[in-house]
Amino acid sequence: MKDYVEKGDIYFFYRPKVNTPRVENIEDVQRLYLVLAPDDKDTARLFLVGKKRMPEITHGKPSSTAREWMMNDMTGKPTNIGEALAPLEYATKTRGEQEQGEAIPVGEGRYAIFERHNSSRLAYRLTNPTKPGKAQAELGILAEASYIISVRNPSLDVPGFPDAKPNYPKRLIEKFADKRWLDIDDSKLLDYEDAQLLLIGAHDNLAEEQISITGKASLFKTLGLKKREWPNEALEGG
User: Does position 61 have pLDDT exceeding 60, yes or no?
Assistant: First the structure.
């Protein structure tokens, strides 16, 4: 029986660049977000994905070059995460008030974090869209996938990673010792803002992980978003 660290809903969003009425490809995308909403908790986490794309998975085999970082941008009540994904308004010196569009949902599903082959894994299965399309392909979002996942030691410098550091309590800091990367045996490692994770593409078929992820996600209900007010073409049809 597999020992699960956490299960829950997973949601993907992208935010278009300012003054981009129509997104044609990844060059028009400002940010890619990944939301983890654990079961049986009243909090969710909003992660910023580096390079705006999930790590590539090649022929279902792990690749040391298919890696990417993501960073906790916010932890809070699911409805607060929903509010953070709304349109942004800000002032500029040259153009006055500017508005950046809402983050657009591009995938929802179920996920699990678990231990396998002496490493932590994050695996997910989409429930929407049922068949990924162009939007998902641009962002590296597959129908199902798994990644080797580890947490960066905030006391050690890692080239290519953000300089921000999470405010971990002493109990979690001591877990790292002198390790650069730490497997996730405690989901609280993911809860702190600025916590940074390394993702390495593993499999595009969950059978390879010998797990089955069941259930159906409920993005709009969980995050408190009104479906009729939110663009959902990419979520429904890819």
Answer: no
Say if residues 203 and 114 touch (Cβ distance below 8 Å): no
Please check whether residue 25 lies inside any domain of the structure: yes
Cα separation, 142 vs 10, whole angstroms: 13
What is the span of the domain harbouring residue 216?
Answer: 4-230
Asked whether the whole model's pTM tops 0.90, one would answer yes
- pLDDT tens-place string over residues 98-144: 666 789 999 999 999 999 888 999 999 999 998 999 999 999 999 99
Residue whose C-alpha is closest to residue 132's, from 238, 42, 26: 238
Is pLDDT at 58 greater than 80 in this prediction?
A: no
- What is the number of structural domains in the chain? 1
**Dist CA 197 CA 150 (whole Å):** 6
Phi and psi torsions of 154, nearest 5°? -70, -15
* Residue 35 belongs to a domain: yes
Q: Is residue 222 part of a domain?
A: yes
Any domain includes 160: yes
pLDDT at 83: 95
